[in-house]
Amino acid sequence: MPNAQLTKIGADEVIEDRFDGGRAARPLLGIVIATAILYYGRDLLLPIAFAVILAIVFSPVVRRIEPWLGRAWSSAIVVVTGMLAIAGIVYFLTIELTAVAVEVSSYSTNIATKLSHLEKSTPAWLRAIEQAFHNIESELQRNQAHRVPTQRTLEAAPAWSPLNEFAKSAGSLIGGIAEAVLTVVLLFFLLYSRLDLRDRFVRLAARAGIPVAAQAIEAAGNTVSRYLFLFSVVNLSYGIISGLILWGIGMPNPELWGTLGFVLRYIPYVGATVSAVLPTLVAFAVFPGWTKAIEVVATFVGLDQVAAQFVEPFFIGAGVGVSPVALLFSAAYWTWLWGPAGLVIATPLTACIKVAGDYIPSLDFFSLLLGADVALEDYRDYYRKLLELNREEAAAFATRYCDEHGLEATYKELFAPAIELAGQEFEQDHLSPSTGQFIVDTTRELIAQLGSRFTKPRVLPPYRVLGVCAPGEYHSLGLIIVLELMRQDGIAASFVGENKTLAEIRDFANRYTPDIICISCTTSSNLAATVQAVRALKADRPQLVIFAGGAAAAAASQELIEAGCARVCANDSEGRRAVRQYALNRARTRPSGEFWFPIRFPSKRQTR
Questions:
Q1: Residue 317 has pLDDT above 70, yes or no
Q2: 3-state DSSP call for residue 322?
Q3: Residue 592: predicted pLDDT
Q4: For 112-117, which contacts have Cβ atoms below 8 Å and span 24 or more sequence positions?
Q5: Domain boundary among 406, 425, 447
Q6: Residues 474, 498: contact at Cβ < 8 Å?
Q7: Are residues 571 and 503 in the same domain?
Q8: Is residue 432 part of a domain?
Q9: Averaged confidence pLDDT in the chain
Q10: Which CATH number is 404's domain given?
């Protein structure tokens, strides 16, 4: 039975709160430290990030051709091909944009005419605002001209030198080449040693006590790779179609604008709009009137909306489930850290981090922060409402879940996992005793409240089951759930209560005269008390049938059977089946002529 982890909660003695003042600040401190490392180490970390993302994208290709060419050759071919494609795109864009700049300069007369027309058609209020800005600028320049520079200012002014400018340019160029070479080398070794690196990471995580499975890493990589591949296909289609439309309306260099649209659409939210700026300016300069410029803007923006609203949901599906708001903040964060390069890799990098949170338990907070908003549907959402100490919303959620999935599913898929999670959080000092007690009390109330919403079948003659917690256990919500499900089966099930002594349990059993006693023992420290209780109850009523259940009981089944238990059940479902079987056997052996209604177990439809 679940809930062994929370046996400390609900004790009569005062439990000292183990939360220290710095615990709440640890996540914030970790984010600050990570941000500082990413910022100051960008010269090294940016090539690594690019290499990791490209390795994730190209891994399926290497995996497919590796059986024919071998690991080294397949990795080398993919790296060389990918780098040549990227270099070709960059070279093409550079040459074409330079040619467009030269071409546009020859249309200076048309540009001047349009600007003059715009100036004449400007509203009076807008011209007044423009004049005010001009006056302010002139005043600032006049004040600056009256200032006499001091000797210190003149001495501090650096002398301009062509050699210094050349050194700066050469340094930037060498730094860019070094980053590109580092990215290519890292990409090759990541592809070549991907399986070895995965196994090393798993072993390292195991030594650090972090549960990470190799299959989880493989699944995460496949998920991100598929998403980025399909996203690239959509972007490529976007570039091709936009280029064809611009060719159809007579725009010069349509292949350039299509390629630019394909590349810039990787930038979240603003990429498609930015890709429309340059062709719109060219249309403004080359063509008379405004029709062509408006057509260009409509082409890029319209195709982007079609791709985002209709193509991607059906072609890519849910993708990796990154929230649009999280993607927007992520784009701003990576741009602030790494500039334009960070903006380019913001979407794939965020997808990688989010999927890592989905598959690696220790990083699940990334999944929570970056995940798309989904309908409340499982025990985590119920547990979150309990953490907020919101009894009303927790009850409403449990009721809605019960209406949709049934009573038994609510008990087993909502309440039991939430209590188990609360126990783990409590053991790790992530949950205060008062909050843990609130979770237990609220769940206990909801178990009874939901059970009372359904009509129980009648069983004659009366058939009684008594639930007993082993002395020393403070609660057992698992036992309470089993008893409530037995009531749905038409069995008269009662609970003796928690924190009862052996004498109180024996007195209650003698007065209630049950047919079966279900005793719960979830912790090994209470095993001796459980054995003593079984022997005492059997001594009072030798004909009594006793079933034992719980983690500790299952581990010591032989000892409990020798003490007098008829059966030891490993889990809730087995205990419930045992009681059902006993009831059916008793029905078959009833005395002749005795009026008996057979036990009727509700179907799924009846429990909804």
A1: no
A2: strand
A3: 43
A4: 114/284
A5: 447
A6: yes
A7: yes
A8: yes
A9: 75
A10: 1.10.1240
Does residue 432 surpass a pLDDT of 80?
A: no
Those residues whose C-beta lies under 8 Å from the C-beta of residue 435, and which sit 6 or more positions away, are 386, 387, 389
pLDDT tens profile 519-530: 888 777 778 888
Q: Are residues 397 and 483 in the same domain?
A: no
- Rounded CA-CA distance 334/323 in Å is 16
Distance CA 481, CA 50 (A): 52
Of 336, 370, 404, the position where a domain reaches its end is 370
AA identity, residue 458? R
pTM of the model: 0.53
Task: State yes or no: pLDDT of 591 exceeds 70.
Answer: no
Q: Do residues 561 and 543 make contact, with C-beta atoms less than 8 angstroms apart? A: no
519 and 438 in one domain? no
Looking at per-residue pLDDT, the higher value among 23 and 121 belongs to 121
Assess if residue 546 is contained within a domain. Answer: yes
- Number of folded domains that form the chain: 3
Structural domain contains residue 165? no
What residues does 397 pair with on adjacent strands?
none
Residues 485 and 534 in one domain: yes
Structural domain that includes position 493: 455-588
Rounded distance between C-alpha atoms, residue 404 and residue 605, angstroms: 10
CATH number at residue 583: 3.40.50.280
- The size of the chain, in residues, is 608
Q: Are strands 545-549 and 464-469 parallel, antiparallel or unpaired?
A: unpaired
Instruction: Identify the weakest region by mean pLDDT among 3-12, 160-169, 196-205, 531-540.
Output: 3-12
Nearest to 526 by CA among 446, 583, 468: 468
Express as a percent the part of the chain with pLDDT over 70. 72
The answer, yes or no, to whether residue 217 has pLDDT greater than 80, is no
342 and 319 in a common domain: yes
- 443 and 332 inside one domain: no
The span from the CA of 300 to the CA of 277, in Å, is 10
Please tell me the predicted confidence (pLDDT) of residue 604: 38
Summarize pLDDT for 235-294 with one digit per residue, the tens. 999 999 999 999 998 888 889 889 988 988 887 777 888 888 888 888 888 787 778 888
In this predicted structure, what is the pLDDT of residue 506? 87
**Rounded to an integer, what distance in angstroms lies between the CA atom of residue 79 and that of residue 55?**
9
Q: Identify the bridge partners of residue 519 per DSSP, sorted by sequence position.
A: 468, 548
Q: Please state at what angle helix 391-405 crosses helix 433-451, rounded to 10 degrees.
A: 40
- 244 in the same domain as 361: yes
Q: DSSP code of 458?
A: P
DSSP-assigned letter for residue 413: I
Phi, psi angles (nearest 5°) of residue 561: -65, -40
- Are 417 and 469 within one domain? no
Has residue 395 been placed in a domain? Answer: yes
How far is residue 69's CA from residue 584's CA, in Å, rounded to a whole number?
66
